[in-house]
């Protein structure tokens, strides 16, 4: 048997992901050691409540509530607690003691990334986070390493499994949002507080991480426009399908030019995706990240975006990489923020829109509405009309569905304000961006 140098691995958190990481590490320790060139000894799993039921059998002697002592004795610390505190403090303690850190925690990275990367660089340690975006899907390493020689133009991603699961059930089974969310929570996809999923915040965390990596620029969470799916109704999902679209929560990170200045933009919102686009075929809790790069062209990364054992795969990949660096020596690779591009707000984004209006069914209304779009330089691509209601009433109404060509978000917002104020418009029923 080969004798390896032994590395002490501390796992913080024994929940959906942590319990699977511990189990796989115990089960496949020898194989992982052969790949890493070092023994990977699980020295403990820190939890909050040692008596809580676990998804896997972790030997009782490895369970502890003393995370700090565990960190001090470790070469590699795997943070799988989630949330900001105490995760941030534990990661800093681990890095400051010289340990490499692996985390799946997008919230702590999106909120405190620069501080954590700086701490890692100071001591020459490594901070890995493949599982923080896209669960099992390799996307961090491809962006950081494989595409380091290219220029990324755009990323279009389904990066939240819970919301994709919910929207998919609303589309394919006619569920309402609440019942689909309950099932996603039962299956372990949702965050401890599912508002993070349905409010779009989890996807916004991931968008900040992806945009920072892809554009070599620090993009902070408050620079990511965020709109969740709480306002998406079953009726909208059904109407979308009839019109040839599916509703998806997308994270969009792109290089844009505003007033002649090159910068980046990051946004998360529900969007209409044409049924023939590859992202429309992403079902259940799966994630997919579509990357457009100048030289490489279009690339798609697809797979399980959530789930304990699936996410554990990405964590263990990081663990093997971290162990290899321990064996080879040398400092960790610092985050690259050299481009330092300006981050533009949503008002500068350019996309297509579908605007649904209830209007008075009278002569000249269509012309009035077309003029309001034209007044704000928003070009109309297609219009369809159906009778909405009010027949026999004093003022019959019609439903107009207008799809625009690409327009700047600020122009579209001004158009919607004019439509809302117009006497011929009974109501602006919905405004959805059309992507892909
Ligand atoms: P869980 O809520 O299932 O588990 C969290 C674990 O942390 C629990 O074991 C809990 O202990 C422990 N814990 C909480 N507070 C403390 C504390 N103060 N000290 C020590 N331990 C503590 O989370 P997940 O496993 O689902 O997620 C872990 C991380 O992975 C998060 O950052 C999440 O965003 C990320 N992630 C999760 C995915 C998923 O599909 N679940 C996918 C991708 C990323 P106890 O068990 O005693 O309560
Ligand atoms: N709650 C997250 C999701 C877990 O649904 O995608 C994976 O990050």
Would you give an account of this structure?
This protein has 436 residues and is of the alpha/beta class. It contains 14 helices and 17 strands. The strands form 2 sheets. Strands 7, 8, 9, 10, 11, 12, 13, 14, 15, 16 and 17 form an 11-stranded mixed β-sheet that branches. It has a 6-stranded parallel β-sheet with strand order 3-2-1-4-5-6, sandwiched between helices. The radius of gyration is 24 Å and the shape is elongated. The N and C termini lie far apart (53 Å). The structure holds NADPH dihydro-nicotinamide-adenine-dinucleotide phosphate and L-homoserine. NADPH dihydro-nicotinamide-adenine-dinucleotide phosphate (NDP) is lined by residues 12-18, 46-49, 52, 67, 80-82, 86, 104-105, 131, 135, 188-189, 191-192, 306-308, 311. It catalyses: L-homoserine + NAD(+) = L-aspartate 4-semialdehyde + NADH + H(+); L-homoserine + NADP(+) = L-aspartate 4-semialdehyde + NADPH + H(+). It comes from Antiquaquibacter soli. Keywords: Amino-acid biosynthesis, Methionine biosynthesis, NADP, Oxidoreductase, Sodium, Threonine biosynthesis. This is Homoserine dehydrogenase.
């Amino acid at each position: 048997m080969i004798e390896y140098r032994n590395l002490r691995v501390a796992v913080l958190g024994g929940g959906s992901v942590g319990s699977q990481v511990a189990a796989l590490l115990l089960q496949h320790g020898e194989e992982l050691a052969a790949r890493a060139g070092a023994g990977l000894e699980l020295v403990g799993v820190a939890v909050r409540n040692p008596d809580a039921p676990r998804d896997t059998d972790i030997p009782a002697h490895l369970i502890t509530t003393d995370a700090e002592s565990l960190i001090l004795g470790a070469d590699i610390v795997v943070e799988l607690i989630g949330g900001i505190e105490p995760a941030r403090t534990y990661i800093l303690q681990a890095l400051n003691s010289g340990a490499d850190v692996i985390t799946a925690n997008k919230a702590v990275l999106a909120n405190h990334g620069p501080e954590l990367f700086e701490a890692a660089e100071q001591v020459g340690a490594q901070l890995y986070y493949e599982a923080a975006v896209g669960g099992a899907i390799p996307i961090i390493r491809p962006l950081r390493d494989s595409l380091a020689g290219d220029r990324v133009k755009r990323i279009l991603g389904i990066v939240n499994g819970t919301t994709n699961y919910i929207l998919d059930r609303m589309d394919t089974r006619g569920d309402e949002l609440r019942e689909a969310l309950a099932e996603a929570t039962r299956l372990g996809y949702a965050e401890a507080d599912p508002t993070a999923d349905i409010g779009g915040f989890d996807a916004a965390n991931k968008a900040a991480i992806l945009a920072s990596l892809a554009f070599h620029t620090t993009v902070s969470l408050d620079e990511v426009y965020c709109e969740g799916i709480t306002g998406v109704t079953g009726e909208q999902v059904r109407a979308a399908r009839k019109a040839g679209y599916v509703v998806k929560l997308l994270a969009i990170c792109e290089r844009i030019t505003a007033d002649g200045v090159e910068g980046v933009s990051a946004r998360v919102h529900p969007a209409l995706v044409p049924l023939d686009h590859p992202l429309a075929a992403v079902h259940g809790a799966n994630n997919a990240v579509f990357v457009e790069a100048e030289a490489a062209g279009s690339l798609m990364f697809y797979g399980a975006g959530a789930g304990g054992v699936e996410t554990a795969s990405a964590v263990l990949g990081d663990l093997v990489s971290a162990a290899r660096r321990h064996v080879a020596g040398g400092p960790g690779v610092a985050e690259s923020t050299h481009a330092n591009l300006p981050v533009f707000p949503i008002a500068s984004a350019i996309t297509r829109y579908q605007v649904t209006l209830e209007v008075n069914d009278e002569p000249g209304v269509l012309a009035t509405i077309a003029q309001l779009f034209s007044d704000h330089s928003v070009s109309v691509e297609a219009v369809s009309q159906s009778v909405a209601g009010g027949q026999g009433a004093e003022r019959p109404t019609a439903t107009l569905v207008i799809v625009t060509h690409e327009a700047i978000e600020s122009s579209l917002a001004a158009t919607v304000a004019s439509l809302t104020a117009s006497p011929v418009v009974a109501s602006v029923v919905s405004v959805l961006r059309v992507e892909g």
